[in-house]
Amino acid sequence: MSRPGSFFMRMGLTPGQIAMHAFLLACAFAMLFPFYWMVLTAFRPSQEVFSATFHWLPQTFVGFDNFREAFAKAPLLRFMANGAIICSGILAVQLLTAIPCAYALAKYEFRGRNLLFALVLFALCVPVQVPALPLYMGLAFTGTLDSYFSLMLPFFLSVFAIFLFRQVFRSFPDDIIHAARLDGMGEMEILWRVVVPSASPAIAAFAVFSITAHWNDLYWPLIVVTSPELAPPPLGMMYFSDTDLGSSFGALMAAATLLTAPLTILFLFAQRHFVQGVTMTGVK
Amino acid sequence: MTMVLSSHPIGRTPRRRLGAEIAPSIAYWFATPSIILLVGTMLLPIVVMIAMSFTDYELGALDFSFVGFDNYVSLWGDKTFWRSLLNTAYYVALVVPASVIIGLVLAVMVNGLKRGRRFYQIAFFLPVTSTLIAMATVWKYLLHGKIGPVNHLLTAIGLPGMEFFGDPSLVMPALAIIGVWSLAGFNMVLFTAGLTAIPQELYEASAVDGIDNPIERFFTVTLPMLGPTTMFVIITTSITAFKVFDTVAVLTRGGPQGASDVLLYVNYLEGFQYMRIGLASAITVVFLGIILLLSLVQAKVLERKVHY
């Protein structure tokens, strides 16, 4: 006779563990319910949305009708392409500027180093909403509002990246740098070919962190962008939900599904970097 | 990653650096792009912003004059400003305890599992990475007064349905629910890092002392050891919650009847919709002051953490 008890025990499932799983599954259900509801509604006909009864699954199958409607109503792919352009532009400049600066702070002795580091620490605390007004005015006066450049400008400098990479570079052994110098490598070459590859986990974690932050940012795009064809996903979503919402919850949820999908997929493939990225903000 | 979280003593071990041997000009070349950006997109704008808070400048106006503290005086007497400050504080007071406690409980329970940790970590972290604006529209639907499943649930268990975004007394709690949902997983990850840093011997020692009950163990070992992490998470969450803007801008626009006016939203309206740059700058100065105060507390906490 098989004894389920011993089977559970072998699986490491004591009554205490089972109780914890039950509790956590209930929590996971609550946390994931909005995602479920979003996808469900994206596949439901609109009359079901307004019915007063609750159903776990669509009662009539409408296929991708809501998605077709969403695409017809707004340039969703354009929004996503904008998000990709903005995120990659920001990330590229952030890495190109922050890495050398962090290396200088970590490994060189120069006048003003402590002042620079103090300013970095100060800037770490300042959210984008603080310099927003003068930046907006500067862009307005130079006629560069409503462009990709204006969308990226405030984020080109990441003091968080400087702070983070400085920590990582500090632990890079000086002897290796010395040896590379004796081999006749230039300082620039040492940085990019010897030191940077060793920091790739931190760079990956920062990249994921940066992409998430700027893909999801609403505040700054809302301020500088007026033409819909430049809108990144959150702003596009806002336009979308502003146009007649009442009749088409299905299309709205289809749009939400599409615009959340890229980051969700990125997250599922790079969870480790995400988690590391969060943990690193612990120093922020 | 725990190493990074537990922070570094900054410049505590003075050791000779490599750069001392070579011309430091290369260091300046390395730092220059960042310095230009730091000055141009951060420091200079802040100085300009503070200066503008003492003027009556409006965007598009041809001239302006210095008005001293007038903007601050009019803020002091402005009902909308105080309401937005109170609403923001109310939001922080709702979101911080809930998201910190949920984050802590989830971290401790997931950490105590023998199997399936990864699954739960993914499930709880998913809301953090999702595009909040998109998910906010989903939440608006979930909490909808007539067709929202939350109201279906409420009526099913015999409670009256609630018009979350139409009722001035319910709108901040409704926004807070979304805030907690999007932050709890973040806090869970921070607590998990704190938990893995607790030495196993402490648990063994507590077992020797006869503490076997998991709840007792949580209060005698885990919680005290998580003290600094908890402080840190509380302040980080406070800063994030204080910056609430997205959900307000998309879902409520300050309504109904100004019940969800929050500081950054009012600031946004003053500066970028009504173009009253002087007044908006004064609000921004207040905002910056509060953020810096919170950051100062955070820095103190981090400093203390080093000594643990």
UniProtKB/TrEMBL annotation, chain B:
Q: Which family does it belong to?
A: Belongs to the binding-protein-dependent transport system permease family.
This protein's UniProt keywords: Cell membrane, Membrane, Transmembrane, Transmembrane helix, Transport
Q: Which GO terms describe its cellular component?
A: plasma membrane
Top-rank lineage group of the source organism = Bacteria
The name of this protein is ABC transporter permease
Family annotation (InterPro entries): ABC_transporter_permease, MetI-like, MetI-like_sf
Transmembrane regions listed in the UniProt entry: 26-54, 89-110, 122-142, 170-198, 218-242, 274-297
Q: Which organism is it from?
A: Pseudaminobacter soli (ex Li et al. 2025)
Q: Name one GO biological process term.
A: transmembrane transport
Every copy of the ABC transmembrane type-1 domain together lies at 85-298
In what way does this protein cross or attach to the membrane?
Answer: Multi-pass membrane protein
Instruction: List the subcellular locations.
Output: Cell membrane
